[in-house]
Design goal:
Distance between the termini of chain A: 12 Å
Number of helices of chain A: 6
Largest interface: A-B, 26 and 26 residues
CATH superfamily of chain A: Winged helix-like DNA-binding domain superfamily/Winged helix DNA-binding domain
CATH class of chain A: Mainly Alpha
CATH architecture of chain A: Orthogonal Bundle
Shape of chain A: elongated
Oligomer: homodimer
C-alpha cells in the first residue's frame, strides 16, 4: 500500500512543504509570506513549522531586519525527498493503483 | 487557495474514495474487500464509511448472503465530484500553484 507520510499529509504542513519545495534549492521563505499565503495565524504556522523542523524536513533561521526578528524557512534535502515520496504515494492512491494491485494478490 | 476537502483528505477516507471512484460507475465494493485492501479494522472502516455516508459521498447497502449480512459501498455522483475536486486541489498544491498565484497578488 502506498505510504502516506502523516507529518506531511496534514493540510497546513502539506501546503508549507509544497511552497518550500517548489522554490529553487535553498531558497528561504519568510514567515510572514508563508502566513499570508496559507492564511493561518502566527501560532498555527509556528506550531506546524516546528513540527516539520523536528522531523528534519525544514530548517528555520532567525535574523534581524531593522532590529525586528524575522524567521525564514527552507526545505532540507530530507524534506524534499519526503515530500516527493508523499506526492508519489498520493498519486498512486488517486489513480486507484491500490485496488489494481489488490486484484493481483 | 486550492480547497482541500477535510472529509476526504483523511488518509483512510481518501483511500476509500479512491477505491470507490476508480471502479466503474455504480460498482459496489464489499466491506471485507475494502477492509483487506486498506488494512484497517472493521470498526475503523465502519466509522469512516459512516462519515462518508453522512456527507452524501458514499451509499451503503446491506444484503444477506447465505444468511450472513454483507455491506456494500459505492460512490455517489456527489462523492465522485467531491473526490475529483479534492484531487484537483491536491494537484494544484503539489505543483506549487499557490505560491505562484501569491506572487501576482
Amino acid at each position: 500500500m502506498a505510504d502516506l507520510n502523516e507529518i506531511i499529509h496534514q493540510p497546513v504542513r502539506l501546503r508549507i512543504m509544497a511552497a518550500l519545495v517548489t522554490v529553487e534549492d535553498e531558497t528561504q521563505l519568510d514567515f510572514t509570506y508563508l502566513r499570508n499565503l496559507l492564511d493561518v495565524t502566527d501560532g498555527n504556522l509556528g506550531a506546524h513549522l516546528r513540527k516539520l523542523e523536528e522531523a528534519g524536513y525544514v530548517e528555520l533561521s532567525k535574523t534581524f531586519v531593522a532590529r525586528k526578528p524575522r524567521t525564514y524557512a527552507s526545505a532540507t534535502t530530507r524534506g524534499r525527498r519526503a515530500f516527493e515520496d508523499h506526492v508519489a504515494a498520493l498519486e498512486a492512491i488517486m489513480r486507484g493503483e491500490e485496488s489494481d494491485g489488490r486484484k493481483n494478490d
